[in-house]
């Protein structure tokens, strides 16, 4: 890539919708140019529940993003989450009959793995290469030129339910905007928050949002497992609201004052207006217990899923947690205590010209820009091995540029 590209991205979450524009340099440096965030509408547990409300929210956030009139968005990269996202590993094999492996063989073997991954009713989002095998030699990164009888590839496939995928596209259908690529939200976040060392050593990223927790395990630099759990901060808030017989809004405020790992003395309490306007006092110790139970359930579910997938020993680097709920006080030490693994809270920066936004919930939006740059993450077709989204963006941006004669 020899030129800069301006890319638009949108993270459609259960609590917030975040849209941003960034200039991506040929070296992959991401310079955020504009940013807009609004409360989410029409999204529940990461899935689209009301298309009309979501379209309205998309209009609001994109209009805000383009408010100064400098940019006009015609294409966008969007995140998709929810339990419709499934990750699984697949293999493909081709015969090379004692010849050196060629680029064509590599394309063929990925096509074979892809054909094994096509499932009825599923939309492929990503086919991520894990490793090649030539005859019995495993863990090969680049098989080109190696002689062998058989070439195999192991890939990690991330797919979404076709219905969820098309519902996401529908959210933009009323505007003149092409959704250039749909990226699994958890994958985008994982790329934004992990270091190269962590990815090599093995790390598990948890994007703990409002409605969902997205799990991604990366080991030896490749994605080993992805999964989405329908449990996030919203459930903790609802538990507190139920316990305190108060509104979700009040419970949200209280949640942010509670440390789920603290041992509060029994006399420490908070006052909460009840639904019938009768104020009550509750011991912090009891509220923390309510929240902690849900957090423990989350950790248990995560560990159960990882163990079922056979990757529980693949992340000695521990957990990196992101998403808004990573800020829940005491959650990181609680995970550390329950799993005996290190836990780091991600700190993601959106460095705009006028201000620097910092927060773990910006992982997905910044990760979308990384995906736009790294063609590996936007590729699902074997005939796209050389054409990543930036290249395709480049072509469409050139068209747009001609049409508008503007920044694109
Ligand atoms: N300081 C904090 N303490 C506790 N919880 C917090 C804090 N800040 C944000 N949260 C929680 O983070 C959640 C929102 O996180 P985020 O913005 O990542 O969600 P989302 O991306 O919209 O949702 P999802 O990814 O699940 O669809 C809310 O449940 C909110 O209560
Ligand atoms: Mg999210």
What descriptors fit this protein?
408 residues; five-stranded mixed β-sheet; disordered C terminus; binds adenosine-5'-triphosphate; binds magnesium ion; Dna Ligase, domain 1; globular
**Rg, alpha carbons:** 23 Å
Main beta-sheet annotation: 5 strands, mixed
Question: Given this structure, which CATH class of the domain at 86-160 is correct?
Answer: Alpha Beta
For the record, give the distance between the C-alpha atoms at the N and C termini, rounded to a whole number. Answer: 16 Å
Low-confidence regions: 381-408
Could you walk me through the main structural features you see in this protein, from its secondary elements to its overall organization?
The protein has a domain at 86-160: Dna Ligase, domain 1, CATH 3.30.1490. Helices cover 33% and strands 33% of the residues. It is built from 11 helices and 20 strands. The protein has helices at residues 51-65, 103-117, 162-170, 185-193, 196-201, 233-243, 248-255, 284-308, 331-339, 363-373, 389-404; strands at residues 5-12, 16-24, 30-39, 43-44, 47-48, 75-80, 86-100, 122-134, 137-140, 147-161, 178-184, 203-208, 213-219, 222-229, 269-273, 279-283, 319-322, 343-345, 349-351, 356-358. Strands 3-2-1-6-11 form a 5-stranded mixed sheet. Strands 14-13-12-17-18 form a 5-stranded mixed sheet, with helices on both faces. Helix 6 (233-243) crosses helix 7 (248-255) and helix 6 (233-243) runs antiparallel to helix 8. The longest helix has 25 residues, at 284-308. The chain is globular and about 80 Å long. Magnesium ion is lined by residues 13, 185, 207, 209, 323, 364.
């Amino acid at each position: 890539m020899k030129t800069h590209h301006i890319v638009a991205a949108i993270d459609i979450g259960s609590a917030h919708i975040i849209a941003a524009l960034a200039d991506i340099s040929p070296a992959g440096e991401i310079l955020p140019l504009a940013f807009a965030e609004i409360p989410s509408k029409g999204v529940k547990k990461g899935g689209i529940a009301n298309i009309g409300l979501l379209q309205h929210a998309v209009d609001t956030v994109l209009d805000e993003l383009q408010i100064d009139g400098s940019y006009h968005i015609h294409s966008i990269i969007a995140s998709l989450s929810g339990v419709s996202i499934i990750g699984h590993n697949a293999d493909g094999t081709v015969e090379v009959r004692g010849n050196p492996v060629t680029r064509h063989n590599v394309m063929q073997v990925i096509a074979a793995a892809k054909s094994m991954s096509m499932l009825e009713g599923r939309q492929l989002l990503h086919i991520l290469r894990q490793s090649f095998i030539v005859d019995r030699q495993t863990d090969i990164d680049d098989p080109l030129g190696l002689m062998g009888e058989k070439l195999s590839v192991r890939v990690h496939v991330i797919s979404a339910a076709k219905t969820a995928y098309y519902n996401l596209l529908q959210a933009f259908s009323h505007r003149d905007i092409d959704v250039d690529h749909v990226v699994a939200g958890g994958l985008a976040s994982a790329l934004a928050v992990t270091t190269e060392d962590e990815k090599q050593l093995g790390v598990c990223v948890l994007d703990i949002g409002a409605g969902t927790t997205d799990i991604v395990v990366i080991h030896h630099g490749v994605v080993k497992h992805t999964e989405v759990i329908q449990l996030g901060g919203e459930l903790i808030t609802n538990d507190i609201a139920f316990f305190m017989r108060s509104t979700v809004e009040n419970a949200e405020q209280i949640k942010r004052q509670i440390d789920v790992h603290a041992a509060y003395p029994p006399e420490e309490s908070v006052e909460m207006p009840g639904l019938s306007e009768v104020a009550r006092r509750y011991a912090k110790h009891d509220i923390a217990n309510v929240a902690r139970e849900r957090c423990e359930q989350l950790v248990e579910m995560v560990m159960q899923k990882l163990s079922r997938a056979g990757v529980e020993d693949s992340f000695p680097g521990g957990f990196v947690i992101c998403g808004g709920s990573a800020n829940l006080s005491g959650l990181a030490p609680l995970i550390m205590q329950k799993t005996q693994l290190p836990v780091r809270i991600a700190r993601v920066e959106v460095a705009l010209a006028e201000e620097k936004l910092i927060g773990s919930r910006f992982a997905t939006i910044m990760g979308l820009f990384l995906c736009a740059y790294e063609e590996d993450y936007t590729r699902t077709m074997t005939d796209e091995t050389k054409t990543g989204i930036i290249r395709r963006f480049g072509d469409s941006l050139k068209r747009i540029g001609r049409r508008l004669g503007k920044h694109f």
